[in-house]
Specification:
Number of helices: 19
Strand content: 5-15%
Largest sheet: 5 strands, parallel
Number of strands: 14
Number of domains: 4
CATH architecture of the largest domain: 3-Layer(aba) Sandwich
Distance between the termini: 55 Å
CATH topology of the largest domain: Rossmann fold
Length: 465
């Protein structure tokens, strides 16, 4: 989802120069107009992420064009370009809806910085609106980029769409979640859906970095910079140039290293060990942790300024127990990948487990089960995990039966009936005389209903009694 940019300036030479600078920064969807009136007509039928508008133009000045764009395409972030930095003009533009302004002549660094901030502002607003309204596209638009994350959970699909919005700019992204829930998978999906998709994806385990080696490993070093440096070496920043640098386990990073990392994020430049010239960090940062960073900040174990720099674009991956309907989907995918099959009874057992190790635990259990099945469909006896039931929050007794003449909802009636059947079978779901056979449902479907109706804790109690 690369950003689209509209450029309007009556100076043809300046437009060509501006287009060259933007292409060097990686922008590809560029449209230029020297005639502001034609640009105004064009934007009535086309939308853009960013509009770069000259302030002083004949026939229609930049302020008038700004007002027109904000009327027909309010989501477009407009940046004014002017050779005359008049405070009055700048204030007028900001009041009319401009995000920022740039003075002529432009420098590539200024242009890149302002465009990055404008895109960050746009996508944070879109993500906030999506989260607030809970409407709009439920799944990522670039489905191929997110294809490795298999889910039918509306909540997770919404989070993936939010991640995709953040991916369109170069802002740092923080992914949190429990161990094994797919944080690196999400980081790779963000990379694939960004304009840096053709660049490298470099993953770094921050736990493995020591303070003494951080600068050499991260920044790289020149030959002879220290004893043993026999050749120039690219650091992680150099290896990821033009792509994405994934900082895994960032919550466990030592405090002194946190300060060095913050400077890179803020300044966008670094100096390799043994060299004197600074280099630009042309990477997108995605960080991940299973730690509660707010708590670590309060404990003095994580820098507050680094936390604020990272958490603007924050995506929290759901644990598998909060999307239990995904368990059959994932189980069948992993089994097929190994060329095997899984029985309904085994799927039912999988749906009764809370998966504290999340997707990683699920995959490991299935890999082992396929081995034990020896080419046959995986059965419950092939599963080697200690059942950890999903705890519900509903009372263990069903809703009391209504008094004569009192109506109850279909869901309440279903809940009461399923509970009675579970008590009759002592919580047994599969096999002859099991609850799934009595109800005429597949074991996996019955487990979905049990989870949805809040009967998981009641089922556990029935089995213990």
């Amino acid at each position: 989802m690369p950003a689209s940019v509209l450029m309007v300036d009556d100076e043809h030479d300046f437009l060509e120069s501006l287009e060259r600078m933007l292409r060097l920064e990686g922008y590809r969807q560029l449209t230029a107009f020297a005639d502001p009136k034609k640009a105004a007509e064009h934007i009535e039928k086309n939308s853009y992420d960013i509009a770069l508008l000259d302030l002083t133009m004949p026939q229609m000045d930049g302020v008038a064009l700004l007002g027109h764009i904000k009327q027909v395409s309010p989501e477009t972030e407009c940046i004014m370009i002017t050779a005359n930095e008049s405070i009055t003009s700048v204030v007028k533009c900001i009041k009319s809806g401009a995000y920022d302004y740039l003075p002529k002549p432009l420098s590539p660094e200024q242009l890149s910085c302002v465009l990055g901030r404008a895109l960050e502002h746009r996508h944070l607003l879109e993500a906030a609106q999506l989260r607030k309204s809970q409407t709009g596209p439920r799944a990522p638009l670039n489905a191929d980029a997110f294809s490795e994350i298999r889910t039918q959970s509306p909540e997770l699909l919404l989070l993936l769409r939010e991640a995709e919005l953040h991916a369109a700019s170069d802002i740092p992204i923080l992914i949190t979640g429990e161990t094994g829930c797919g944080k690196e998978l999400l980081a790779r999906a963000i990379h694939r859906s960004s304009h840096r998709a053709q660049g490298p994806f470099v993953a770094v385990n921050m736990l493995a970095l020591s303070a003494s080696l951080f600068e050499s490993e991260f920044f790289g070093h020149a030959r002879g910079a220290f004893t043993g440096a026999e050749r120039d070496k690219l650091g992680y920043l150099g290896q990821a140039r033009g792509g994405t640098l994934f900082l895994d386990e960032i919550g466990d990073l030592a405090l002194d290293i946190q300060g060095k990392l913050l400077r890179i994020l803020q300044e966008g430049e670094y100096v390799p060990v043994g060299k004197t010239r600074s280099e630009r960090a042309n990477v997108r940062f995605v960080a991940a942790t299973n730690q509660d960073l707010e708590q670590r900040v309060s404990e003095g174990r994580f820098r507050k300024d680094l936390f604020y720099r990272l958490q603007c674009a924050h995506v929290h991956m759901l644990p598998l127990r909060d999307r239990i309907d995904d368990v059959p989907l994932l189980a069948e995918h992993f089994v097929r990948a190994r060329g095997g099959e899984i029985s309904e009874e085994a799927l039912a057992a999988f749906c009764s487990h809370s998966w504290p190790g999340n997707v990683r635990e699920l995959k490991g259990c299935l890999d082992a089960a396929v081995n034990l099945a020896e080419g046959r469909p995986v059965q419950p006896e092939h599963l080697r995990f200690k059942l950890s039931p999903v705890e519900g929050h509903e009372p263990t007794e069903p809703v009391p039966a209504p008094s004569p003449g009192e109506w109850i909802s279909l869901e309440a009636a279903e809940r009461q009936y399923i509970y009675r059947v579970l008590r009759h079978t002592n919580g047994r779901i599969t096999g002859s005389g099991g609850a799934s056979q009595i109800l005429g449902l597949k074991p996996s479907t019955l487990n979905f209903r049990i989870q949805k109706l809040g009967l998981r804790a009641a089922l556990h109690q029935v089995r213990q009694s």
